[in-house]
């Protein structure tokens, strides 16, 4: 009986696009939920998520029972670590920060048994062989291991053509975030220079007959990557999905409660001037609308202020969300107006 057939590797080899999701919550229960979603593959992240071999294995187990293929990203491409992941039954591994053909060649040797490679022979006590229940595992395992390497800096991109010549590398994944940082555009993977290099790299990977991969949350970029020929595409991350939706739900739920409102006024003949100064001052931080007589400033955090100028008074309405700090917001408004009105005795009196 041979090693289990790797349907994910076969799909990549056949050029069939596989859509996946990144798992960084480091929890088997969360991974099991993700495994019901219908993605072609799910990556358990051991580089930036708090995973070790045991937690990765727990997640791989529950993913294996679904229609999704488990992929594990190692923290680093060390031979001893690769051996442990393979013996644990992980057939699809992604190795980060590959910078040279020599490094890629050593990774190929790490996933293969002698004489072609250096993978340690301990399958009799390994989950990968079903604990020696697969008699032909040692002779058939190599062909079912899918080695994906991650190129994510300028050094790796410069060596890409040589890396692509290495037999045994099944796919090359370009990491946009680290590449953007290395190019001087940290936090901006959509910078035109970064996108141009990524597209060029993906095109070269496809032309070399390797599976090309990427993680991008941008729908337009996702479409472009598929058009180029990317076959393992991650379109989302469980952590960001959870955080984004939890925050949105909290905001919509808190919106059911009444806002906190306070009104006040200041006697001044320069109300229009101060109104416009305050609105202009906050125009780069919030959403602002104003003219000579009225003004409104709204901030993403939930605070807002409405102002109305008359010939003799400046009228102010301060508003905060249900859990906002209205008293502090009132103080901020008062302090700003006092600075603008330093040439007169200005006092904003809040109504009780």
Describe the fold and architecture.
The protein has 352 residues and is α/β, with parallel strands linked by helices. The protein has two domains: 7-246, Alpha-Beta Barrel (TIM Barrel); 258-350, 2-Layer Sandwich (TATA-Binding Protein). Helices cover 38% and strands 21% of the residues. It contains 14 helices and 14 strands. It has helices spanning 7-13, 28-34, 53-64, 79-87, 101-110, 137-140, 154-158, 160-163, 176-182, 192-207, 219-228, 238-254, 271-281, 326-340, and strands spanning 18-23, 41-45, 69-73, 92-95, 146-151, 171-174, 211-215, 232-237, 260-267, 287-290, 294-298, 304-309, 313-320, 349-350. It has an eight-stranded parallel β-barrel, surrounded by seven helices. A six-stranded antiparallel β-sheet has the order 10-11-12-13-9-14, with helices on one face. Strand 10 (287-290) and strand 11 form a beta hairpin. Helix 2 (28-34) runs parallel beside helix 3 (53-64). The radius of gyration is 29 Å and the shape is elongated. The N and C termini lie far apart (82 Å). The model has no long low-confidence stretch (mean pLDDT 97).
Identify the notable features of this structure and list them briefly.
six-stranded antiparallel beta sheet; TIM Barrel; elongated; TATA-Binding Protein; eight-stranded parallel beta barrel; 14 helices; 352 residues; 2 domains; 14 strands
Low-pLDDT regions: none
- Please provide the ordered H/E string of secondary-structure elements: HEHEHEHEHHEHHEHHEHEHEHEEEEHE
* Rg calc: 29 Å
State the CATH superfamily name of the largest domain: Phosphoenolpyruvate-binding domains
């Amino acid at each position: 009986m041979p090693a289990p057939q790797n349907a994910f590797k076969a799909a990549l080899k056949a050029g069939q696009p596989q859509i996946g999701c990144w798992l960084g919550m480091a929890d088997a229960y969360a991974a099991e939920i993700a495994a019901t979603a219908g993605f072609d593959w799910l990556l358990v992240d051991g580089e930036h998520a708090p995973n070790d071999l045991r937690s990765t294995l727990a997640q791989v187990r529950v993913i294996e029972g679904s229609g999704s293929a488990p992929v594990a990203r190692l923290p680093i491409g060390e031979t001893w670590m690769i051996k442990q992941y393979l013996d644990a039954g992980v057939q699809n591994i992604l190795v980060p920060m590959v910078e040279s053909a020599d490094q890629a060649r050593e990774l190929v040797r790490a996933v293969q048994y002698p004489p072609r490679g250096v993978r340690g022979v301990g399958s009799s006590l390994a989950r990968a062989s079903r604990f020696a229940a697969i008699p032909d595992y040692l002779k058939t395992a190599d062909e079912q291991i899918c080695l994906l390497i991650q190129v994510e800096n300028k050094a790796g991109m410069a060596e890409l053509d040589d890396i692509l010549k290495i037999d045994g590398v099944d796919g090359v994944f370009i990491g946009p975030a680290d590449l953007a940082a290395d190019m001087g555009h940290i936090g901006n993977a959509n910078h035109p220079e970064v996108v141009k290099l990524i597209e060029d790299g993906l095109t070269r990977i496809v032309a070399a007959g390797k599976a090309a991969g990427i993680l991008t949350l941008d729908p337009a970029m996702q479409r472009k990557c598929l058009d180029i020929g990317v076959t393992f595409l991650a379109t989302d991350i469980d952590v960001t999905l959870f955080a984004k939706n939890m925050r949105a739900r909290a905001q919509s739920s808190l919106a059911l409660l009444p806002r906190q409102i306070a009104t006040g006024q200041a006697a001044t003949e320069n109300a229009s001037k101060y109104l416009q100064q305050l609105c202009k001052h906050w125009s780069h931080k919030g959403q602002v609308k104003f003219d000579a007589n009225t003004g409104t400033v709204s901030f993403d955090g939930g605070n807002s202020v409405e102002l109305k100028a008359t010939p003799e008074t400046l009228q102010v309405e301060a508003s905060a969300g249900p859990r906002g700090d209205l008293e502090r917001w009132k103080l901020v408004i008062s302090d700003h107006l006092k600075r603008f009105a330093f040439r007169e005795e200005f006092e904003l009196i809040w109504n009780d």
